[in-house]
Design goal:
Number of strands: 6
Shape: globular
Number of helices: 9
CATH topology: Rossmann fold
Radius of gyration: 15 Å
CATH class: Alpha Beta
Helix content: 40-55%
Largest sheet: 6 strands, mixed
CATH architecture: 3-Layer(aba) Sandwich
Distance between the termini: 12 Å
Strand order of the largest sheet: 1-6-5-4-2-3
Length: 191
Amino acid sequence: MIHPIEVESYQILATRIDLSHLSAGTRAVVERVIHASADLEYAETVVAPEAVVAAAVRAIAAGAAVVTDVEMTRVGITGVTARCYLAEAVADGHGTRSAAAIRLAAERHPRGAVFVIGCAPTALYETIALAADGRVAPAAVIAMPVGFVGAAAAKAAALRSGLPVISNTGDKGGSAVAAAACNAIVRLARG
């Protein structure tokens, strides 16, 4: 059951911006991100190709693992069990703990998982590097880290990588936004 506040939020969103030109899956992701952030700019900056949305939906519907870079992203995801390996990760001189957590995730879920990066650009760079080395092949990567240091560049690299990526351009992003994009995928998979 959808909460009345959410229904009202979507009604308000529809009066503020017209997203009818977007394909159904792309629109669902953009709407959910705007709903979670109250930031209409995401209508212009989210990159959610319909084919990637469809691949993520198929993966979730088939029971694929969902892995995140940090706990804040994990706890924002509803409707599926998401995993985060940050608590087990140890910075080993090869990057941040978030990058180490992604290496653990890749070892445990080398094929077909949905990776959701909502905080750490280093985790996104690690995902890209592991995929380039053939050590992980995600069904989709939701790449929305936030920050002034490295976030925009990491997202641009992800979009150029050839991976199936849902992302946004610029410094904005974060755990709530990444979780919202994932939640849109989960809803599409369940509905």
